[in-house]
């Protein structure tokens, strides 16, 4: 007999579960931006101080080593990763690990746009991860730490050789501020303001180890470098870039919003508390999945399951899998139309199901309530199909 559920009486206080731009911090209002330097030059002393504060606070909260350089760059995380690849790749072989949308994009750019040779491709399906142990320490390595479209994360950095000759280029946009990153294993790390701390979009961050900085001047790319990618001027690293002098004009309104998120993170206990909130959020999903008869994690292996971007797939054994795509879309629309959970459909190229952002700005009580509604809408929708 088909299970019947009572319509839930309570909705989440916040219905925002988008994986980017992500939910603002708890208690955020537009009044937090009243001190933004709108109408001022980002090159004024006050403007540069704001930008430098973003860099300084980010470095402090993320526990980035003092000798690493951090900069604000154009184009969100995408711009930061492209900047890294265009500036640094070429002198060594490259290992690319791809298991979700963006890591596939980096692979495509390396092979088809930069047209680099000696590229080894390690690719796996959504919900899985390639064998990271196959990396060659003589090669540069390009990978995402966390896959927002697949719900899969790198389990640790043990597979990265401490004595490697190549550089590691890590897209960490949905891992920064949500997971502990092994900085000594990472030579280039990128993220964006719009992810874990819920900042406004369009601005990226890049962190360079001393080895990556050395590569900037030791290696000259074989292709013309667009201005927005240049970190070197007349053979020397542009040091002012890492002191708040951005390449292009940033939004000082977005800068103020980024600072608000960073101050909130610092006030609640820094990285330790941010990671704890993400872990607790994942636990809510885990408890729900263990009881579900129709849904499970896209990442079935718990050791690689993301704490910040939870991806779920339909697995109802009594239903024709051909019905899964339309069923998932119908349920996601019901979640949206009732203002229970917005933007919770699976990524467009992922298996049919649902994707919930569960980073530090999300409250676990809201997740619990959203899952009650997910259950309710599933059984309501599937009734006519069985």
TrEMBL record:
Q: Which cofactor does it need?
A: pyridoxal 5'-phosphate
The text of the family note is: Belongs to the class-V pyridoxal-phosphate-dependent aminotransferase family. SerC subfamily.
Looking up NCBIfam families in the UniProt record yields: PRK03080.1-2, serC_2
SUPFAM superfamilies for the chain? PLP-dependent transferases
For this entry, list what GO says about its biological process.
glycine biosynthetic process, by transamination of glyoxylate; L-serine biosynthetic process
EC number in record: 2.6.1.52
User: Where are the membrane-spanning stretches?
Assistant: none
**What is an example of a GO molecular function annotated in this UniProt entry?**
L-serine-pyruvate transaminase activity
Q: Which UniProt keywords apply?
A: Amino-acid biosynthesis, Aminotransferase, Cytoplasm, Pyridoxal phosphate, Serine biosynthesis, Transferase
Q: What is this protein called?
A: phosphoserine transaminase
**Species this chain originates from:** Acetobacter orientalis
List the catalytic activities from the record.
O-phospho-L-serine + 2-oxoglutarate = 3-phosphooxypyruvate + L-glutamate
Q: Matching PANTHER family, A to Z? A: ALANINE--GLYOXYLATE AMINOTRANSFERASE (PTHR21152:SF40), AMINOTRANSFERASE CLASS V (PTHR21152)
Q: Where is there biased composition of kind Polar residues?
A: 1-12
Q: Spell out the residue ranges making up region: Disordered.
A: 1-20
Name the pathway. Amino-acid biosynthesis; L-serine biosynthesis; L-serine from 3-phospho-D-glycerate: step 2/3
* Gene3D superfamilies named in the record: Aspartate Aminotransferase, domain 1, Type I PLP-dependent aspartate aminotransferase-like (Major domain)
């Amino acid at each position: 007999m088909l299970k019947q559920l009572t319509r839930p009486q309570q909705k989440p206080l916040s219905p925002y579960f988008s994986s980017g731009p992500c939910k603002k911090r708890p208690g955020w209002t537009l009044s937090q931006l009243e001190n933004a330097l709108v109408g001022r030059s980002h090159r004024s002393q006050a403007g540069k101080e704001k930008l430098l504060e973003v860099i300084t606070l980010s470095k402090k909260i993320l526990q980035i080593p003092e000798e690493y350089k951090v900069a604000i760059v154009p184009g969100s995380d995408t711009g930061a990763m492209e900047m890294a690849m265009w500036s640094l790749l070429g002198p060594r072989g490259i290992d690319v690990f791809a298991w979700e949308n963006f890591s596939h994009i980096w692979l495509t750019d390396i092979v088809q746009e930069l047209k680099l040779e000696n590229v080894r491709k390690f690719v796996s399906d959504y919900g899985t991860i390639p064998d990271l142990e196959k990396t060659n320490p003589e090669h540069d390595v390009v990978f995402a730490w966390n896959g927002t479209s697949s719900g899969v994360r790198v389990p640790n950095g043990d597979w990265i050789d401490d004595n490697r000759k190549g550089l590691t280029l890590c897209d960490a946009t949905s891992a920064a501020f949500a997971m502990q990153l092994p900085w000594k294993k990472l030579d280039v790390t990128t993220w964006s303001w719009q992810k874990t701390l819920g900042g406004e979009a369009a601005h990226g961050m890049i962190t360079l180890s001393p080895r990556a900085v050395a590569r900037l001047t030791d290696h000259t790319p074989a292709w013309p470098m667009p201005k927005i990618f240049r970190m070197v001027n007349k053979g020397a690293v542009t040091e002012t870039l890492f002191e708040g002098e951005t390449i292009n004009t940033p939004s000082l309104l977005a800068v103020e919003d980024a600072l608000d998120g960073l101050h909130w993170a610092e006030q609640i206990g820094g990285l330790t508390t941010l990671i704890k909130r993400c872990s607790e959020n994942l636990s809510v999903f885990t408890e729900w999945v263990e009881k579900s008869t129709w849904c499970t994690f896209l990442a079935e292996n718990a050791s690689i399951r993301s704490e910040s971007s939870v991806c779920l797939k339909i697995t109802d054994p009594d239903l024709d899998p051909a019905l899964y795509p339309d069923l998932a879309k119908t349920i996601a629309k019901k979640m949206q139309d009732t203002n229970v959970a917005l933007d919770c459909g699976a990524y467009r190229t992922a298996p049919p199901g649902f994707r919930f952002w569960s980073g530090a700005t999300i409250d676990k009580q809201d997740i619990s309530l959203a899952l009650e509604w997910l259950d309710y809408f599933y059984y309501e929708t599937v009734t006519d199909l069985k």
